[in-house]
Write a structure and sequence with these properties.
The chain is mainly beta. The chain has one domain (about 5-345): Beta Barrel (Porin). It is about 10% helix and about 55% strand. Strands 1-2-3-4-5-6-7-8-9-10-11-12-13-14-15-16 form a 16-stranded antiparallel beta barrel.
Length: about 350
């Protein structure tokens, strides 16, 4: 890597640290006035990925800041800091660094049915982007193949969002999210001009959630994206089923993931209690070429077999094996990761 490119990367990292520091300082000052204590949580881990025989090593830290300001405003942010070590074309390894904000937003509670969100937020399309991207939550180290469909590639938006519970009772809860994003080319707050939203209904008796999403890209080529999702976690069971289907102008696909915690066999203190076998099936179907949508260039199917182990003190070991089938060639993907989740207040409350 040339010294020029290295200087550019260092400047970007420095600017990112500066923006994050400014945001933390502003939040801290405002929080002191409200006599509330911000919380820092998140995860740190070491991930390895062997794809087609080439192994990449990724130490990563993903801190999350949550700070209430009074009784109606909550400021939250998540960053990703990682160092990637990957094979060079010849011999040996090269490395690259990355620091970026995943989101930085203010949540303003208007009433029990409406929360107004402003800033940089995760695009509310389907469920994976908002719920499963944190490294301490996702069961597999790699995102689904269709992850970029509907999330506008950057996975976050810059603008405003309205969300909340439209209606609820003992039998159902109807949840919604609607947003608009402006186009932004800022290095830390880049986004595409788009709009859309998601609606879902949760049935408490069945522990079942069904939802639908729609997003429209409003810059360059105007494109539509739509999707549906289904989550099921039966009561008094360790079984979990999660799934999504999404379609765009040039491709469509789905993923279905099932997992089962073994702590029901012998209790929580049994050696088997920490194991969680997992299976995820995913496919993508290409209708026309598009080198920018983030999906495979050819029809692809990929079964993923995972085995996670939950250790005490918020430590987890993730392992998985995947076999990718495509007309461009078949390959094996092996991934491992050890993840630690942390949570602590920024200072002692009065």
């Amino acid at each position: 890597m040339s010294s020029f490119l290295q200087d550019v990367r260092n400047q970007r990292i420095a600017r990112g640290l500066y923006l994050l520091a400014c945001a933390l300082a502003l939040i801290s000052v405002q929080t002191v006035r409200g006599q509330e204590v911000p919380l820092i949580s998140g995860g740190a881990g070491f991930v390895t990925s062997t794809n087609g025989g080439n192994t990449t090593y990724l130490p990563v830290v993903s801190p999350v800041l949550g700070a209430p300001i009074g009784s109606h405003v909550f400021v939250e942010s998540r960053a990703t800091i990682l160092q990637a070590f990957f094979p060079k074309s010849g011999k040996g390894y090269d490395h690259d660094a990355f620091l970026g904000l995943d989101y930085l937003q203010a949540d303003i509670t208007a009433n029990r049915h409406l929360t107004v969100v402003a800033g940089q937020f995760l695009t509310p399309f389907a469920t994976y982007n908002e719920r499963l991207t944190p490294i301490w939550i996702s069961n597999f180290e790699s995102a689904p193949l269709i992850y970029s469909l509907g999330t506008m590639q950057t996975a976050h938006s810059v603008g405003g969002m309205l969300r909340g519970s439209a209606a609820s009772n003992a039998h159902f809860n109807l949840d919604y999210a609607a947003y608009f994003s402006a186009a932004s080319t800022n290095e830390q707050f880049n986004a595409q001009r788009s709009s859309g939203g998601r609606a879902s209904v949760y049935l408490p008796a069945a522990h079942l959630e069904i939802g639908a999403s729609y997003n429209r890209l409003l810059q360059d080529k105007h494109e539509n994206f739509s999707g549906v999702h289904l989550w099921w976690e039966p009561a008094d069971s360790s079984f979990r089923l999660r799934s999504e289907f999404a379609t765009g102008e040039h491709a469509r696909g789905y993923w279905v993931e099932a997992g089962y915690r073994l702590h029901r066999f012998g209790g929580d203190h049994n050696l088997l209690a920490g194991f969680e076998p997992l299976f995820r099936m995913q496919q993508t179907f290409r209708s026309s070429p598009d080198p920018n949508d983030g999906l495979p260039a050819h029809d692809t199917q990929q079964p993923d077999f995972g085995l996670d182990y939950h250790l005490p003190h918020e430590v987890r070991i993730n392992t998985s094996y995947s076999r990718q089938f495509s007309s461009a060639g078949n390959r094996n993907i092996w991934q491992t990761g050890i993840i630690y989740r942390f949570l602590f207040p920024t200072w002692r409350s009065k």
